Amino acid sequence: MQTVPSDNLLHHVEEIETVYTKNDVNRFLKQGWVLLSVGSGQEQTGQHDYTPSFAYCLGKIKPKNV
């Protein structure tokens, strides 16, 4: 497991991906990506009905040179 100091985390991100479902989030996390941020909002599903929606931003950390 790679440990990166939190104050320098963004300097170690080599790729960013935005996904919209928990299944996709879990798939990326299992591949070693880290959760960078979560955005939330509402989607209109009917004339007066809204459901919450989420966008998850994940980052792939650069491999450490050995």
UniProtKB/TrEMBL annotation:
It comes from the Bacteria. This is Uncharacterized protein.
